[in-house]
Amino acid sequence: METNKLTAYENRKVNPTTIWMLFLFFGWSYGSLNKVGLQILFYLTLGGLGIWFLIRFFTLSDAIKTFNRNIAIEVGLNNKEMALLKIL
């Protein structure tokens, strides 16, 4: 595995624990995943009056995995490398 690609991935990926803490304490999750417009809408609707918050609660883990997988693809990791990092 190339060190440059791995370093680029490690620098750009998001930490699931950090995202979960931000979400639970501040309602911040979309902004961390480069969707600031959705984050503003989330705040303006008060989390869809709680409904959107509940949906996000159950879908956040998959969103984090998808985001990190997309970062891995952007930096050029192949399927074998992603499998070794357990992001495939």
Describe the model:
The protein is mainly α and 88 residues long. It has one domain. It is built from 6 helices and no strands. Helix 1 packs antiparallel against helix 5 and helix 2 packs antiparallel against helix 5. The chain starts with a helix and ends with a helix.
Can you tag this structure with a few keywords?
88 residues; mainly alpha; 6 helices; elongated
List strands and helices in order, with pairings.
Blueprint: H1 3-12, H2 16-26, H3 36-44, H4 46-49, H5 51-75, H6 79-84
Helix pairs in contact: 1-5, 2-5
* Overall pLDDT metric: 92
User: What portion of residues belong to β-strands?
Assistant: under 5%
Report Rg.
15 Å
SS class:
mainly alpha
Helix-strand string? HHHHHH
Structure described in brief:
This protein is mainly α.
